[in-house]
Amino acid sequence: MSSCFSPTTLDQAIDLLAAMPHLRVVNGGTDVMVGVNAGSAKVDGWLNLRRVEDLRGIEHIDRGLRIGGGVTFAEIEQALTHEVPALAMAARTVGSRQIRSVGTIGGNLATASPAGDALPPLLVLDTEVDLVSPRGMRTVRLNEFLVGPKRSACAPDELVAAVVLTDCKGAQHFAKVGTRNAMVISICSLAARLDAKRGHARVAAGSVGPTALVLDIAAGLLLQRDGADDFADTVAQSVSPIDDHRATADYRRASVRVLAQRIHHHLWSEQVGR
Amino acid sequence: MNDQHVRLNVDGETVTLAASPSTSLLRALRDAGHTAMQGACEQGECGSCTVVVDGRVQNSCLTPALACDSAEVQTVKSLLQADLAEAFIRHGAVQCGFCTPGFVVAAEQALDSPDPLSADDVRERLAGNVCRCTGYLGIVDAVLEVDRSRRASA
């Protein structure tokens, strides 16, 4: 009996998972294999998605910009630099070239780590998640998909088929704090989007709560051009960081405040430039 | 324990490897005597196990061996070009040599830029490889020199 299946279509993949629910879903392997090598994750068999063509590709559809679950961070970094800068910036900060060339956006979602680098930018881009199973496809808003630390609304028989970014308008930015410029799991991160003309703003933070967090009150304050300090204070008050081996809660709150000030400045200077 | 076999191509040679689901490509290759890449952290942090699988540079420690059936794997053995090797030697980019196979594979991939590389570009592109001897200066200089000379002769 084989213990690694490498389907080439999404239909084959969901049928295999339905028939063999013990299979561990893998694409890049950059997260799950760390636990396997350390002996903390046990795998009895793989459902390898690397050869599924339906999961590849970035395209415009009626709902917005669709990015297949198997699209890698390297591909996002290259293809979306101008169109979706916040997501491209976040992709560029993921791990190393070796990680970005195989690590996928679908994996980042399915892992649902509070530190998932793609999650804050996707939250500010009003992202929907398309989940497929033998029961069909359903769409969940990303803020409802992320339900807890490493817990998502993805059922055991579902796969992340794609994300759809439904609003990329306005200026957008992403920033992250870590102990190095590369190869770090973030201590805190912040993404924001500002379309002052439409009176529209979104803010989301990573590594400062049980999930990546949408900060609605702060988003309202981002609309005020002269309110950088109020905005930054509100961001710092709205997050709920913990002490862990990477940083203290106090440091996270202080550093996310600094990121908020920088992002406020950056986004408003881009509005003037328009 | 329940090992299965995968057939793949390593540096142009057809190879059959025994692996269980938890075996990484790194472990499967080394256990079969293919030692052109090193294992060290086995967490994707150090880059000493860097190889190219089906055209994508990656850490072989984070790649399940069973997922590599019929894949094309390139190690330092087929990626080492004479100009890069000579530049590494000339610039003192090799001291103990443990990290070198991974660095050479990553460096060859780093040289794929459409634009000339700066020292910062090289550092960013090689950020997934750790060296504890050289202080990186020789490595960065070697890659910059090869980038310049290949562009001049292109």
Could you characterize the architecture of this molecule?
The complex is a heterodimer of chains A (274) and B (154). With 274 residues, chain A is of the alpha+beta class. Chain A is 35% helix and 24% strand. Chain A folds into two domains: 51-165, Uridine Diphospho-n-acetylenolpyruvylglucosamine Reductase, domain 3, CATH 3.30.465.10; 171-272, Enolase-like, domain 1, CATH 3.30.390. The longest helix of chain A is centred in the C-terminal third of the chain and has 24 residues, at 249-272. The model of chain A has no long low-confidence stretch (mean pLDDT 96). Chain B has two domains: 4-77, Beta-grasp domain (Ubiquitin-like (UB roll)), CATH 3.10.20; 80-153, DNA polymerase, domain 1. Chain B has a five-stranded mixed β-sheet with strand order 2-1-5-3-4, sandwiched between helices. Classes of the chains: A alpha+beta (274), B alpha+beta (154).
